[in-house]
Each structure stands twice: as C-alpha cells, then as structure tokens.
Design goal:
By secondary structure, this protein is an alpha+beta fold. Helix content is about 15%, strand content about 30%. It is built from ten helices and 26 strands. The structure holds manganese (II) ion (MN).
C-alpha cells in the first residue's frame, strides 16, 4: 500500500503555518480530552487543530476501515494500533484525503466540523500509549565514548562489546509520564567521598538525557525473532523522550547490573506519536560499522532518520537557553538493528512497548545530549541567558526537548516534551 499521505504536493484546507510541526504530511496520533468530552479520545494533530477521530468515525467518515468506535474513544492508542501497520497506514491516508485541498466531503459540512475539530490550546494531552515494557538502548557512539571517558578512562572508553551489540537494559514503564508532568527531585544513596560510607539525601547531580523512543506493534510469538528487514513493519511511530538521570546515584549503584533507581523516578514523552510512515522521506544513511557486525545485525537501505533535536533549560521566572543541538541521525545502531537484537534470543515484544534510543550525542561539543557531557561532569559550567550558570539541573528549572525533520520545504515535527523540577519531597 502506498503512503499517499506523504505526498509533498498536498496542502490542507485547514490553515497550517510554515513553521508548524504538524502539516498534512505529518498527521501524528495522540490521546486528548477537552471541554466537549470527559472521555479520552484518539486525536490527530493538523496545524494548531486536533482532529477528533471518534467523532470522525461516528459521523461516518472512516467507513471501509477495520476500526470500531471503541478504538478511538480510548484511554490509549493501543487498541487502534492492535489493528497493525496496514490498518493505521490506511487510516492516516484516509485522514489525509479528507483534509486535503480539493476534498469537500467534510469541509462543506459546518455542523460536523464543529464536532470534529478543536483548537490544540483547548485540549489536554495524555500519555498516548499504555506502555507494557520499556527498554533503553545506549546506541550513540559519542555518548558511550563520553560516558566511558568520564566514568572510566579515555583509552578504554568503549567497552569491548559496544561495536558488536546494541547495548540496552530493561527499564520501568510505570514512571514514564506525559510532557508537562512536573516532578520532585529524587532522593537516594550516593557516595560523595569514596573513602567514607555512602549518604542518603536529595540527588545533587540531576541530569536530562536527550533521547527519542519508538513504539511497537504486536510482535511475534515467544521464541521467534524479528529481522532487520522486518523491523519497520513492527514499529508504529516515534516521540521525544527525556530519560532523567541522577548521576550521583547512578555512579554508586550501577555496578554490576547497570542503572536502577538513578533512572526510574521519571521519564517524559512528547504527546504526539509521529508515525514511522511519516518519517520515511527523512531516511538517511548511518555510519559505516567497523568492525563488521554479525549477520543478524546487517541491514540494507537507509535506516537512520535525519531529525533535528534541541534541548533548552528555563530557570524559574526567566527565559530559556538552548544548551544542545543534536540529531537523531548520529545513532550508531538504528531501530532495525535494535529490534533485531532485542528479539534474536526469542524475546517477544508486545503492542505498546517503548524502546528508547539512549542519549543522542553528536560529535560536536554543542551536540552532546546530557549535562554530564555538556559540562564535562560539572567542570565546564554552561552560561545561561539570565547570567546564572548550570553544571546540572536545579530546582525550578524547566527542561524542554524539541525535534523536527525537514526536507524540500516539508517539516514533520514532534512538538516538545517539557517538565519542571520541584524540590525534593
Ligand atoms: Mn538513557
């Protein structure tokens, strides 16, 4: 089935400003509620509007598709996603058709428009997916190198397995929350002086991690594997992801099993899931992988994606400062390899699993994806626009990640994910 919704010539009869993340070529999915409905519904962003898919369905605009009303009046996107890739592709194509210039099916019926279209500012967005399992990879070479330098030594920065395995760990899904959910500084055990016993208290080295995550469709049976060439069929879409990290807790606890309480107190996602279909035009090549990877990790075609990313910090009652500009294309391991590796042992994935990229750091110092790297563990503080300095994140700071892909005048964006840090409880 062709992805007709990606046609760069399309324009919508809904006005979309040039810098909008949500032109008709995007049509990302999310879960919203507003004054007109107490129940959560599936929405699609177009310009500064939200399209109510439940109303669209009820008013008869989604006939000949396999969905039911219950798929759209839903707490999460999962039941819609459960119909699989061809169904959600057909749905996005149909929405594109309805809202394209020249199509009058809906445009001319004012009473329907009032029930279907809402201003985004009037809508509350919710966690889009009931996340079953959450996995965090570690797939940016520059990030792994930087952390290796900081936690170990520059000569052996990359561990021997790193260029052979898309390294990852199983995280926790219960604390993944929607953008705008402010949270308290975590507390835990740290060891400020290695000669002394550990102490307990609020984390002193709170950090963000600039990441993206992808959300899966239902996978295969336990025992079966997904190949790199099949992986695209199992990926619904992507969002921005901030994997908050308590560096002082992490340093003390991570040996020998990896991150635990330093990572699971909160992670934030952006509300709109941009489909992998919508990102196809922005595919690009990845780095040459040397040494050669094992056959099950080989892939063909362009499997990386060119997505501009930035992070800002806004101190309380102040203005924001951009602290990092990176790009998703800097990944060493792509999603296809990550998914192939994740399932090569027969591990099954489920509809609504979330897999994060790991911190995305570019080669340039200004492209590092965490404060740990940007300030080189606090030795090079960042100057903020208001004159203050940051080594790590302070109480009252709001951290925002934004991202978009752009090519040939078409911009497909993710909006943003933000959160403010409150003092420890
Ligand atoms: Mn991470």
């Amino acid at each position: 089935m062709t992805i007709s919704a990606n046609n760069p010539q399309l324009k919508s009869w809904i006005e979309v400003s040039e810098n909008s993340d949500f032109p008709i070529q995007n049509l990302p999915f999310g879960i919203f509620s507003n004054y007109s409905t107490s129940n959560k519904r599936v929405g699609v962003a177009l310009g500064n509007k939200v399209i109510d898919l439940y109303q669209l369905f009820e008013l008869g605009y989604l006939k000949d598709l396999p969905f039911t009303g219950g798929d759209f009046e839903a707490e999460f996107l999962n039941s819609m996603m459960a119909h699989g890739k061809l169904a959600t592709r057909a749905l996005r194509n149909r929405i594109s058709e309805l809202f394209s210039e020249g199509n009058n099916e809906l445009k001319s019926i004012q009473t329907h428009l009032e029930q279907i279209l809402f201003d985004q500012v009037d809508c509350e967005m919710h966690l889009p997916v009931r996340i079953g399992d959450y996995t965090d990879f570690y797939s940016s070479e520059q990030h792994a190198y930087n952390v290796g330098c900081l936690f170990r030594d520059p000569k052996n920065a990359l561990l021997p397995n790193w260029k052979h395995i898309p390294v990852g760990y199983h995280g926790r899904s219960s604390s993944i929350v929607i953008s705008g959910t402010n949270f308290h500084r975590p507390k835990g055990q740290t060891i400020p002086d290695p000669e002394q016993p550990p102490v307990f208290g609020p984390c002193k080295l709170l950090d963000f991690e600039l990441e993206m995550s992808f959300i899966t469709y239902e996978g295969k049976e336990l025992g079966d594997s997904i190949t790199t060439s099949e992986a695209d069929d199992y990926i619904f879409g992507m969002c921005l992801f901030n994997d908050w990290s308590a560096r002082d807790i992490q340093k003390w606890e991570y040996v020998p099993l990896g991150p635990f309480l330093a990572k699971n107190f909160a992670s934030h996602v952006s509300p709109w899931i941009v489909t992998l279909d919508a990102l196809e035009p922005f595919r690009t090549s990845g780095p040459v992988q040397e040494p050669k990877v094992l056959p099950y990790l080989e892939y063909s075609g362009n499997k990386h994606i060119d997505i501009n990313l930035e992070v800002s910090i806004c101190p309380e009652n102040s203005s924001e400062t951009i602290v990092s500009k990176s790009n998703y294309k800097h990944m060493y391991w792509n999603m296809n390899q990550q998914l192939a590796h994740h399932t090569v042992n027969g591990c099954n994935i489920k509809c609504g699993d979330m897999m994060a990229s790991g911190t995305i750091s570019g080669n340039d110092e200004s492209a590092y994806g965490s404060m740990l790297e940007l300030t080189w563990r606090g030795t090079k503080p960042i100057k903020m626009n208001d004159g203050s300095e940051r080594k790590f994140i302070q109480d009252g700071d709001t951290v925002t990640i934004r991202g978009y892909a752009k090519k040939d005048g078409i911009r497909v964006g993710f909006g943003e994910v933000n959160a403010k840090i409150l003092p420890a409880k």
